[in-house]
Task: inverse folding
């Protein structure tokens, strides 16, 4: 017999975070019989194990990452964290102003060099910033929560855009014992793990979507909009 807390977890109320997305998050199980069947499919695991380990992935749209980010940042003052890469040039062409932060010695306007792994220095507080972009950077860091907490402290009123590769994007080389992953990456993120990380760092998710191919939930990556 499932406990009330278990039932409420498996049959959550409609989340205000995803009201703009259709369809809204659906419950894992609507009845205790369905829960029992689900547990059997998972190898006769206990309800407690099921409650801890099984998570529904909400449906969400799929977009072109670069096009979506450029449209979102167009005409705005942007702080681009992890700006060492080709996307930064395109971003600076559409943004009203684009500050950059990274650990490399770059020659570009409005640039601040900072060790994003140790976060030994505080982030610069730049007046007028409307959007903070963390695109394909969290998966490179030793302790991404340190950066997320600093951003939260310094840019409380700003919209934060986060993109990461999807942990469940197909890996065609695994049968040959080949991992296809950037050699500088420290982790993979899924919808669940990124949601938990952001919640622990004090963020509220207001939008999220997939990017790239193939179709969800195996798409190339995830985009989260948080405050």
Result:
């Amino acid at each position: 017999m499932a406990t009330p807390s278990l039932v409420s977890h498996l049959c959550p109320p409609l989340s205000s975070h995803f009201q703009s997305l259709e369809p809204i998050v659906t419950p894992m199980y609507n009845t205790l019989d369905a829960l029992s069947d689900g547990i059997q499919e998972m190898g006769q695991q206990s309800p407690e194990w099921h409650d801890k380990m099984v998570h529904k992935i909400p449906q969400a749209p799929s977009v072109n990452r670069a096009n979506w980010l450029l449209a979102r940042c167009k005409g705005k003052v942007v702080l681009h964290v992890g700006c060492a890469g080709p996307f930064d040039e395109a971003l600076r062409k559409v943004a009203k102003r684009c500050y950059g932060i990274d650990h490399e010695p770059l020659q570009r306007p409005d640039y601040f060099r900072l060790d994003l792994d140790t976060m030994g220095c505080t982030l610069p507080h730049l007046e007028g910033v409307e959007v903070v972009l963390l695109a394909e950077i969290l998966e490179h860091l030793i302790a991404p929560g340190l950066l997320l907490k600093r951003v939260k402290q310094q840019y409380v009123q700003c919209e934060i855009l986060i993109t990461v590769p999807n942990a469940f994007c197909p890996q065609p080389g695994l049968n040959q014992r080949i991992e296809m992953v950037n050699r500088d990456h420290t982790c993979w993120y899924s919808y669940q793990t990124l949601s938990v990380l952001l919640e622990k760092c004090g963020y509220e998710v207001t939008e999220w979507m997939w990017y790239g191919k193939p179709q969800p939930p195996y798409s190339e990556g995830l985009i989260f909009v948080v405050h």
About this structure: Confidence is low (pLDDT under 50) at residues 1-26. The beta strands are 62-63, 77-81, 97-102, 111-113, 131-135, 159-165, 205-211, 221-226. The two ends are 38 Å apart (CA to CA). The longest helix spans residues 144-154.
